[in-house]
Write a structure and sequence with these properties.
It is a single chain. This protein is mainly alpha-helical. The protein has 2 domains: about 10-70, no CATH class; about 85-145, no CATH class. Helices cover about 55% and strands about 5% of the residues. A two-stranded parallel ribbon has the order 1-2. The longest helix is centred in the C-terminal third of the chain and has 17 residues, at about 130-145. It is elongated and about 55 Å long.
């Protein structure tokens, strides 16, 4: 059903962001995650965001939805944003989420891989070239496993 779609947006409540990321990943580079705003609280009910936020006005609903679609991150960008703030650069290799992320990005096309690795480099203070090398090595080793 989604084969012909150029983008697939996954929208769940704020307390289900991890599930939304996993689901959006299944669509590859086409997947995006709509994240309800923080002011809706930790559960961040999707219905409250769009229906109540629009106050019954179809034009306001359309505006909210268009803004959400335009700013929706990829699941990998969202995962990078959600890394622990105290994650030290020298701990990246030991962090399972980062290793998996680098391996996945190593399988992406060069533009997507580079864009995401730049985000990770800025977030964690590691040179882009180092992250590119790590992503390539992890992808190669994953491909070599039986």
């Amino acid at each position: 059903m989604f084969r012909r779609a150029s983008r697939v947006y996954v929208a769940l409540d704020r307390d289900a962001i991890d599930r939304a990321i996993a689901l959006a990943r299944t669509f590859g580079a086409r997947g995006r995650v709509l994240v309800p705003p923080e002011d809706l609280g930790p559960k961040g009910d999707l219905n409250d965001w769009l229906r109540v936020g629009a106050k019954g006005d179809p034009a306001a609903f359309r505006s909210l939805l268009e803004q959400a679609l335009a700013t929706s991150p990829t699941p990998w960008a969202l995962q990078i944003q959600r890394l622990p703030p105290d994650l030290a650069p020298w701990d990246l290799e030991d962090h399972a989420g980062v290793r998996d992320l680098l391996c996945e990005l190593g399988h992406h096309g060069p533009l997507s891989c580079d864009a995401h690795l730049r985000l990770l480099a800025e977030r964690c203070g590691v040179a882009l070239a180092t992250l590119q090398e790590a992503a390539g090595e992890l992808a190669q080793s994953a491909d070599a496993e039986p």
